[in-house]
Amino acid sequence: MTPLVWQDDHIYAAPDCPAVDADFHHAEHLLATLSPLLTELPATREINGLRHLLRAIGGQADEVTRLAHNARVYGYNRLSRNGRDEPAKRLLSRAQRLQASLAQLIKPVDLFWVNLPEPQLRLLLQDPELFEQAYAIRHARRLQEQRLSLESEQLIEALGVDGLQAWGDLYDGLVGRLCPLVEGEAMGLAQADNLLSHPDRVRRAQAWHGIQAAWAGEQETVAAILNAINGWRNELAAQRGKQRLLDALDVSCHQGHLERITLETLMGEVEAHKTLGRRALQAMASAQGIADFAPWDLYAPPPATSSVAISAEQALALVTDAFASFDPEMGAFVQMMVERGWIDANPSEHRRSGAYSNEYAHPAEPRVFLTFEGTLDNVISLAHELGHAWHGWLLRDLPLAQRDYPITLAETASLFAETLVREALYERTETRELRRDIAWMEGDRAASMLLDIPSRFQFERVLATARGQGYVGASQLSAMMKSAREQWYGDSLSQYDELFWASKCHFSLAECGFYNYPYLFGYLLSLGLHAQKARTGAEFAPAYRALLRDTGRMSAEDLVEKHLGVDIREPAFWQESLHQVEEAISRLERLV
After folding, report:
1. Cα(194)–Cα(204) distance, rounded to whole angstroms?
2. d(CA 360, CA 170)
3. Radius of gyration for the alpha carbons in the chain, expressed in angstroms and rounded
4. Are 518 and 256 in contact (CB under 8 A)?
């Protein structure tokens, strides 16, 4: 089988190749020609003239967006494979500056749409091309009073490159160069992370302690990053909130296209069912004969599991078959991803940890990144990221404004894909041991979603509030993290990972805060979709594709109401999904 390494030469031959300069020169020319068009906007009153002008501005802005996005994805992906790739770092910075320049320049259009009187808005949106932006415009208008002056909005974009975004970049660079020592052996963070699922408990503990020591040496740096990012958000909210002050969670819900009452209902139901996650961990501890279940045991495989490594080819076959049994188009998509070199999974030096999916804007092509080392967890990660990629692929022919779905709906397709693979594995196994292994994965996922994710959410809420009172030091961050873990995990763990605030990259994302509850939302929504699949059978595959295509053009509440006919502001939907979780935990308890 061909090694799983990205084939991106048709995008760029290298981060500093002539084609990169040509694209940036073209983008700069487009920005220059945009300026005179924007000066016409305040003086244009006639509706047909406005339509023509806005279409022209939008077309050129979209082209710059595509060029900047492609450069940014290419640079970021190169850095993921090698965190010391200096040309890639320069390209990423260059792309970020181009995006910021466009965002600054286009601010008059953003403010035009936000402040436009409703009668004129309705007239303009009768134009089919402008109507493509209708949902995004109306969503932005919900925070109309939060907008600052044009000059202030442009300044925010300009400062963000070397301010907010630079802190996130610093964290990414730190991840790329961190080399934990595991029993005297220096290794990349991704390789050390994979050892946390090693069958030997001693080896897991060695890896965990090595990772802890590495992060402990950088904790003051990460504390500075978290303080800078959260301080920036708090100050921006204060400046915008002269009429109505929004807290960090209000802003997150708006970014997530989710009503706060929906999130509060979801978190309330999870709080009431957190014992399910604890039961899963207790069952896993009991099966392994571990009385002092610790953080390095959270990703342990089931006891006496097969030690035979799964090849990447076998993993891809498993995922392809599981996807195809639900939707043949979905299975064919995985084959295409492999054939076109759109998956990068081979271990490499200075490789970042974790896994992700992103996509180029033009040509609209998804990419998947992970470090595959033959574990069953790697198989599920592969399914997860390919679920993301399938979501993006279904949107490839939509306008850019409708391809940008919110974080709340970002994890639905990935977690649904995981469920498909686990379900297929469970149904095809013939021995109790193999069924136990699959049930183990379901229990592991339940514990992660019902304990880990809510504890992250609680930590981040406390952090946002504490940062408003002043600088939050590393020791205080550790105490806050310990408190959050203790509240959710209780006595299911013998000790807590107090440095999780440093090692978990989601807390240092510059683009958005609270990138934790979207996983929980997506997990329980995916179970709701799974229940619908069981009820409707083969009819559900095209309905599922239709749901994913709508994710960039309606709120979470409207999306679920349209495609499932339920109100997610009410507890009933979440309770049905949690009932499925309870069944999975009971199955795990029986099998171990």
Report:
1. 9
2. 23
3. 24
4. yes
22-36, 298-312, 442-456, 559-573: lowest mean pLDDT where? 298-312
513 CB-side CA count, 13 A: 28
Phi and psi for 281 in degrees, rounded to 5?
A: -65, -40
Residues 6 or more apart whose CB falls under 8 angstroms from that of 513 comprise 229, 230, 233, 248, 251, 252, 460, 464
User: Which residues does 159 contact at the CB level (< 8 Å), separation at least 6?
Assistant: none
The average pLDDT across 80-97 equals 93
Q: Is 60 exceeded by the pLDDT of residue 380? A: yes
Output DSSP code: residue 62. Answer: H
Angle at 406 between CA 401 and CA 407, to 5 degrees: 150
DSSP assignment, residue 398? S
- Residue pair 570/265 in contact by the 8 Å Cβ criterion: yes
Q: What gap in Å lies between CA 484 and CA 496, rounded to an integer?
A: 10
**Sign of the Cα pseudo-torsion (306, 296, 506, 138, in order):** positive
- Flag the least confident range among 299-308, 324-333, 488-497, 529-538: 299-308
In 85-218, alpha helices (H): 86-115, 118-124, 128-131, 134-140, 150-162, 164-177, 189-194, 201-216
Residues 6+ apart with CB under 8 A from 375: 194, 197, 301, 309, 310
| The pair of three-digit structure tokens given for residue 491, joined into one six-digit string | 């006595």
The answer on pLDDT for 50 being more than 60 is yes
Portion of the chain with pLDDT greater than 70, in percent: 99
The three-class DSSP label of residue 224 is helix
Q: What are phi and psi of 263, to 5 degrees?
A: -65, -40
Contact of 177 with 83, CB cutoff 8 Å? yes
Determine the Cα–Cα distance for residues 148 and 328; give it in Å rounded to an integer: 49
Q: Which of 256, 254, 260 is nearest to 241 (CA)?
A: 254
N- to C-terminal Cα distance for the chain?
36
Rounded Cα distance between 426 and 524, Å, is 20
Nearest C-alpha neighbor of 378 from the set 365, 368, 392? 368
What is the pTM for the complete model shown?
0.88
> Which residues lie below 8 Å from residue 3, measured CB to CB, with a gap of 6+?
346
Alpha-carbon distance values, 216 to 232, 459, 474, 501, 541 (Å): 25, 19, 10, 11, 47
* Average per-residue pLDDT for the chain: 94
Burial class for 524, CB neighbours closer than 10 Å (0-12, 13-18, 19+): buried
